Amino acid sequence: MEIRLRPEIEELIKQNVQHGSYETVDEFVECAVSMLHEQEVWLARNRPEIEARIEEGYASAQRGELLGAEAVHTRLKELKQERSKTQRR
Q1: How many structural domains is the chain composed of?
Q2: Residue 25: inside a domain
């Protein structure tokens, strides 16, 4: 299989190989494709919930029930802490 990349993408890959934990371009690309595949599988598996939450948020906005910036930042911080705890287990 032959894959053609834009020069700026090739340069990014080269930089990641030189400065990262990858020994070869092939290793980097394999890792990147695996990660992208995992993301796509997760999105497909969770699409109904994601769509429902978007609809819920849109409906809340239509009703004028938006959160302020500080509340959003606080909630995101809480979610990140919860996710971090879950991933460590």
Answers
A1: 1
A2: yes
Domain that holds residue 79: 7-88
Element (H, E) at 9: helix 7-19
pLDDT the model gives residue 20: 83
Instruction: Give the sign of the dihedral formed by CA 71, CA 49, CA 51, CA 55.
Output: negative
Is residue 67 included in any domain, yes or no? yes
How many CB atoms are closer than 10 A to CB 66?
Answer: 12
Asked whether 28 and 16 are in contact (CB, 8 A), the reply is: yes
Reading the block at residue 47, the tokens are: 């699409």
Residue 39: half-sphere exposure toward Cβ, Cα within 13 Å: 6
* pTM beyond 0.70, yes or no: no
Residue 2, in any domain of the structure: no
Tokens of 40: 């796509």
In tens, the pLDDT along 30-85 reads 999 999 999 999 999 999 999 999 999 999 999 999 888 999 999 999 999 998 88
